[in-house]
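Appendix B, record 7
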Amino acid sequence: MKRKDVLDVLAAARPADLDPPGTSRAQVVELRAPVRSRHATWLGAVAASLATVSVIAVMGVPRLMGQDTVTGQIAGGSSANVLDMAADRAAGQRQTLGRYWHTSGLILGEQLIGSPDNRYRIRTRAQTSRWVPPGPEYMVFTERGLPTVPASAADEQAWRRAGAPKLCGNDSNCGNDTAPLGRTRFMFMPSTWPIRDQGLTLSASDLLDLPRDPDVLKKRLLSFWPAYEKTMAAWPSPPPGASLPTEESWLLDLSLELLEHSPISAGTRAALYRMVASLPGTRALGQVRDAEGRLGIGVGWRRAIGDGWSETQLIVDEPSGRLLALQHVVVEQASQDPPGADGIAGLPAGSIYHALVYQKATWTDTPPTLPADCPAPKENGRNECLG
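Structure tokens (predicted):
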């Protein structure tokens, strides 16, 4: 997504999830999906980045590419919760509050590009960080473009046959200057973004007081659904292949967002692990590796992408309870791209086409180092600068 558009799109972003069940692909559940590349569709289809892709998975991506999702091996009830041990470890973590909740990681992606007779896979990378204050101040998040490379030796040969076109940032046509290669873009948003836009009307400091029991937490989060559902009456109609959120898909989406980026207590994090692992549609994955090869315990949700299938995987380090990654993996190759995305069709099974990989998540008193000419953030302004 081009820099001149990204803040405008973010300000308007609203989620759109998957179609409701109704096919023979048993027990479906709606789930958010990252919006890839530079194509913005419907209400705030932002190119997803913090976890991968194009810009802003870091930032809480609008949910768009929906089609039905299906469960496989169900994770089971709370008595057999696959994330119980990780939740116990997370709950035992000592936290010393600071000025900012600071997260950093990589946004990784994979896509097919090139001419119809000479397609090749590329892998994209962006470094991302976020500083969220527990008060009303603006949060700061950053995107730094890292080199894009062919995915394998065979892909490199195909790329060279194509004349070795320039590969830059997260965008195969070099139109993405949100995460500029070798430079860092600093962006500013309210500390409650994007969860306030998702209906959770709590201050950043209030998030620290969310319940630490999974059942009580679920009830508390669902109390915000009725008001949020009413706001959908004013939304534009979603495009073909996408639909408005349901209560179930909204709860999962919001819960994942809280786990990914929000300043929450260790007890609330543990409760969220248990809660999402027991939601309808959750599959127990056992031991699974994230996009950087780190081994963790995982749960997942399958969903149709075009005429294929993908799986969204939440991966946690069991000994520490630390969140490792949220990633999207091709399960069955698609021959056509889903709505609002390109470059997914043709990716082989096992391809991780979008991943947000965490390197650090901790409280800190150290603020981000901003460029000297970076303007102070202001309400309704274009709050960004380049370093």
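Remarks on this record: The chain has a mean pLDDT of 79. DSSP finds eight helices and eleven strands in the chain.
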